Amino acid sequence: METKIHHTINDLINKLRTHQRADGSWRFCFETGVKTDAYMIILLKSLNHQDEELIKKLVKRLLSIQSTNGAWKEFYDEEEGNLSATIEAYFALLYSGYANENENHMIKAKTFIMKKGGLANAHDLTKVILSLTGQISWPNAFQVPIEFILLPRSAPISLYDLVGYARVHYVPILIASNMDFHLKTKETPNLSELLGGRHINDRPFDFSKSIIETIKREIKKLIYLPKQIRSLAFEQAKQFILKRIEPDGTLYSYFSATFLMIFALLSLGYSKTDPAIVNAINGLKTFVCKTKHGYHTENSTSTVWDTALISHSLQKAGVENFDPMIVKAGSYLLSRQQTKYGDWAFNNPNTPPGGWGFSDSNTINPDVDDTTAALRAIKELASNYGNFANSWSRGVHWVLSMQNNDGGWAAFERNTDNFIVTFIPIDEAERTFIDPSTTDLTGRTLEFLGNDVNLNVIYPQIRMGARWLVRNQEENGSWYGRWGICYIYGTWAAITGLRAVGISQNHPSITKGIDWLHSIQNKDGGWGESCYSDAHKTYVPLNASTPSQTAWALDALISVFDQPTPQINKGIEQLIQSVHKNSWETEYPTGAGLPGAFYIHYHSYRYIWPLLTLSNYRNKFLSQ
């Protein structure tokens, strides 16, 4: 097996060397389901933007991933299909002009939609798209008065209780819904027969209604006259958006937010040819990547994330820091360290910028995970070059400053965990609106601070983080991960983080976590978890092994044991086999966005995590 490990590591290094771009970055596709492709078609057709070649490419991919029953899925093992994805794809295909409702595959799609309850049962974001295009009236859930924008942070609830990525989606929605805006063209399909006999606002009563009433009461406390309040709110909402446009024209470098921004600006009277809208469309077009199923529109590029992780894994694999591949990657990352104060500074005003974002065009929205990934990648360069050393220091300081008061780390902002906002009646509000401490962020941050900054639980901040992880372990020994699928991801992050800061391999939390990983190992030696875990909030086996999840589980085991165990060696054998496979398991989405609605297949993961885990195995067990 030792020879296989060496060969596989060298093979992965050589493959990654050939994929590096001239600027030092790696640009792998950030592939999701149908949502962004469908929205791009809807956007281009709504604006009468003449790019038939792109529309045809996106149509081709949508058709290639339709299931035989007419539905579209978010992940391979999703039973029957996904209602919202099917509505979005069906609408986009009709709007494109390259499919008609009488074709057999479209009839099947329509039948599936009606079987699942029609448009009334769609995800709330899908309902927003349907409202913007005149298919339905605006649902009550989006009828929060625009004056909400003006509430001070001292109010029981305000816009700034939402995390930044939620704000840039919610503000455009508030603008368009308050303007009661709909954009229909002569080519817009009519989906009224898909309502399914239910009113679009059918929703059982819950506590969320009182949250809306609370917002309205707070608005009434404002001192301005009603007309002044409303015009001021619209202007402030517009300025909020314009101030967050990236150099490439996109809003916060997200496709979904930019899509909503365009419709919001149109609702405010912007022309379809206004530079802000034209630049936004051109920026979105740069998000198109090629997959095995054809061309796909990414929700954002993952260039910084991929480049940082790949550079780190290559160095773990033995590539020297003076290798041109590593130096070029470091220079690229150095150029993407952020220098602006973004929304993260609202709750962290006394810390200078120093973080990294996720995408190539991201300049104002750093996050903790990308920052620790970039810092891992430039650590050795920082030992030799002054400019990297300065960058390293600013980045480490920023990461430490982002710790929440509860001891954990979140992704984007400090202490943005006002649970009241999760009662706003939007699907998955708990996952969408707030940014609390999570296992994966806390664990991965501790792993970085322990292994790369040489901090341990002697330091109060580190001890607080470790205690947070111990407190938040599940009864069965696993941990829930927010940004990956899901319990394997969280358990890997927690165990490796605790071990890195000096927690004993015999600590009860560690032993419980290891026992849980052992209990879910597949017969073939690997690990695999279904995206259903994310939606059900309990572990659901995939009954197959994926490269990334197998690598995560193995990496956790390797961090604990002093010698390779039978479970580790069997897993390594399976991992080596998976590197050379091309199957649905190697393409299964293991990145998480929204439960039941948005999952990510990182094309880079089949290289990154196997390379890192095999290297960690070799460095620990074969170098003795």
Automatic annotation (TrEMBL):
<dbReference type="GO" id="GO:0016104">
    <property type="term" value="P:triterpenoid biosynthetic process"/>
</dbReference>
<protein>
    <submittedName>
        <fullName>Squalene--hopene cyclase</fullName>
    </submittedName>
</protein>
<comment type="similarity">
    <text>Belongs to the terpene cyclase/mutase family.</text>
</comment>
<dbReference type="GO" id="GO:0005811">
    <property type="term" value="C:lipid droplet"/>
</dbReference>
<feature type="domain" description="Squalene cyclase C-terminal">
    <location>
        <begin position="302"/>
        <end position="619"/>
    </location>
</feature>
<dbReference type="InterPro" id="IPR032696">
    <property type="entry name" value="SQ_cyclase_C"/>
</dbReference>
<comment type="pathway">
    <text>Secondary metabolite biosynthesis; hopanoid biosynthesis.</text>
</comment>
<dbReference type="InterPro" id="IPR008930">
    <property type="entry name" value="Terpenoid_cyclase/PrenylTrfase"/>
</dbReference>
<dbReference type="Pfam" id="PF13243">
    <property type="entry name" value="SQHop_cyclase_C"/>
</dbReference>
<keyword id="KW-0413">Isomerase</keyword>
<feature type="domain" description="Squalene cyclase N-terminal">
    <location>
        <begin position="13"/>
        <end position="292"/>
    </location>
</feature>
<dbReference type="GO" id="GO:0016866">
    <property type="term" value="F:intramolecular transferase activity"/>
</dbReference>
<dbReference type="Pfam" id="PF13249">
    <property type="entry name" value="SQHop_cyclase_N"/>
</dbReference>
<dbReference type="InterPro" id="IPR018333">
    <property type="entry name" value="Squalene_cyclase"/>
</dbReference>
<keyword id="KW-0677">Repeat</keyword>
<dbReference type="InterPro" id="IPR032697">
    <property type="entry name" value="SQ_cyclase_N"/>
</dbReference>
<dbReference type="InterPro" id="IPR006400">
    <property type="entry name" value="Hopene-cyclase"/>
</dbReference>
